[in-house]
Design goal:
By secondary structure, the protein is of the alpha+beta class. The chain contains 15 helices and 24 strands. The strands form six sheets. Strands 1, 2, 8, 9, 10, 13, 19 and 20 form an eight-stranded mixed beta sheet that branches. It has a seven-stranded mixed beta sheet with strand order 6-5-15-16-17-14-18. A three-stranded antiparallel beta sheet has the order 3-7-4, with no helix packed on it.
């Protein structure tokens, strides 16, 4: 193993971990409030946007506050939503739900269809123009603490370490990035955020956090089948009524559509494969008609944080703040998290400015949050996700009452009863699911899908998917749950080699990992821990 090495240090007023919408909004607002504040952003992707994946129908509310003149600039926000559809699917048919009956929270007439990755690239340029230093390809791997457990910065990961932990000729030690305030903006299930939530007991008194896994494909489709500005969502088939999920189909510019599916990670059947449910969805006659004669040009998947207000941890601690999906600010019924993430970043920036210049404690972040429209929005949305524990139809009825009649202000708050990893039934008590073979036209295997992500990791490096007990997958999880990682992973990372039936082997193809974090969330024994690989590793999303 690597011995302790001398490390360079760099000092800033503020270091931000992650160049997503929340981290970039934080940086921009800090520099707007005080140009003299020294700010840097560490981004684990090879470039800003490389690890960004989202539907994305974008609400501009937070951007309007952050950069009021954005419409006068060359922003990648072009396609305004013109019409909406909501369909209930059966195996062969579809039923259109009148959009005027949808709660206002699910209506999108003032929003835009965008690539969030491209918006982040644009925001990064705005941040750099203000003097923010952005370091892509540098993953924050470790939180730095003072002797009294005050967070004083982060350490970037070592480069040039082999699988056994030995230095290679190319070895470069990570750097200590010291800061007066550290902001964690890693996105959903950030590995450092996860550590901090546990260390400081930030989720005390909260419901267990909830997650979904989201898939997205970009298709170029026949011009005659394209309807620029159309936003469509579906519920129902191929999922049963007890499994939460649904699809999106957004008609963007240039005859492209963003086609995707989200499935709650609280599903019960270990034989369910979220990836294959998405592929199966595309065989529905209505969906198939849209993509006929089309070409799939991009694929990606990532976990979504969906617990809402009752699962939101305390977002401040000594020397640091959590923002965006690192905390869990996504609005589930809106199916949106970008504007809420940005607003949390704006509030964090105001808090940091007060802390650095007026000695107002970081705990003021909580009062700023509770006095903001962000809190109001999450409060009104809080009961939608837990209602789906009752099944699809009861949840839809309840949501209608909650959102349309009471506008999210019912005098009670539903709780989430279980963490997602606790919900799997044993294999012997579950029904096996037979998925159709991939046809290479509408449906595709995981290997060809991962290829489209541009994923790459330095092969000879420590595996970043760490097992607490390397024997557990074969000795326990295989027998009890038929090793569900083979199915919940959207990239084919995990396999069980049964060449020797007496001594099967658990295989981790870490090279395939697209950083979705599903394994860290859904593994029933919490035996898998996702940590950052060597900087710049992972997917390289272009226009996702």
């Amino acid at each position: 193993m690597i011995m302790e090495v001398d490390r360079e240090s760099m000092e800033y007023d503020v270091v931000i971990v992650g160049a997503g919408p929340s981290g970039l909004a934080t940086a921009i607002k800090i520099k707007q409030l005080n140009p003299e504040t020294n700010v840097c952003i560490l981004e684990k992707g090879s470039e800003v946007g490389a690890h960004i994946l989202s539907g994305n129908v974008f609400e501009t509310r937070a951007l309007d506050e952050l950069i009021p003149d954005w419409r006068e600039k060359d922003t990648p926000i072009k396609t305004k939503v013109k019409k909406e559809k909501f369909l209930f699917l059966s195996k062969k048919n579809s039923l259109s739900w009148p959009t005027w009956l949808l709660p206002s929270v699910q209506q999108n007439h003032n929003n835009y269809i965008i690539s969030l990755a491209n918006l982040c690239r644009w925001l990064a340029t705005e941040a750099e123009n203000l003097g923010v230093e952005i370091f892509p390809g540098f993953a924050a791997s470790k939180v730095l603490y003072s002797e009294d457990d005050h967070i004083i910065g982060v350490q970037t990961g070592d480069m040039g370490v082999d699988k056994e932990g030995n230095k290679k000729d190319s070895f470069e030690p990570g750097i200590n990035i010291m800061a007066k305030v550290t902001v964690f903006a890693e996105g959903c299930r950030g590995h450092l955020g996860k550590e901090l939530i546990k260390k400081y007991n930030l989720s005390k008194g909260k419901s267990p956090q909830q997650y979904g896994i989201g898939f997205k494909e970009v298709w170029e489709i026949d011009k005659s089948r394209h309807d620029e500005g159309l936003v469509m969502h579906t519920a129902g088939w191929p999922l049963d009524n007890s499994t939460y999920g649904g699809s999106f189909c957004y008609h963007a510019e240039n005859n492209q559509i963003f086609l995707g599916y989200v499935i709650g990670l609280d599903y019960k059947n270990p034989f369910l494969s979220p990836y294959d449910e998405f592929q199966k969805f595309k065989t529905h006659p209505f969906i198939k008609n849209i993509i006929t004669n089309g070409k799939r040009i991009a694929y990606g998947a990532r976990a979504l944080i969906e617990g809402g207000l009752q699962s939101l941890p305390r977002m401040y601690m000594p020397g640091a703040l959590l923002v965006g999906c690192d905390a869990g600010t996504l609005n589930m019924p809106k199916i949106k998290g970008s504007h809420t993430a940005m607003k949390s970043g704006i509030l964090a920036a105001e808090t940091i400015n007060d802390y650095l210049n007026k000695s107002i404690p970081l705990s003021s972040y909580e009062s700023k949050f509770k006095n903001s429209w962000l809190y109001d929005e999450l409060f009104c949305a809080r009961n939608v996700k837990p209602s789906f524990n009752w099944g699809l139809i009861p949840a839809i009825i309840f949501t209608g009452i909650d959102q349309i009649i009471f506008r999210g202000k019912l005098p009670f708050t539903l709780k989430h009863k279980h963490a997602d990893y606790e919900t799997l039934q044993s294999a012997k008590n579950s029904k096996k699911i037979d998925y159709p073979k991939y046809d290479g036209v509408f449906t595709f295997d995981k290997t060809s899908s991962v290829y489209l992500t541009g994923t790459n990791h330095e092969e000879n490096q420590p595996v970043h998917l760490q097992l607490k007990d390397k024997d557990l997958p074969i000795k326990y999880t295989l027998n009890e749950y038929d090793e569900p990682s083979q199915r919940y992973c959207p990239a084919g990372v995990y396999e069980v080699d049964k060449t020797d039936m007496i001594n099967p082997k658990f295989i981790i193809n870490a090279q395939n990992c697209i950083h979705c974090k599903t394994c860290d969330i859904k593994e029933p024994s919490q035996n898998i821990t996702w940590v950052v690989p060597e900087g710049s590793g992972g997917p390289n999303y272009a226009n996702m």
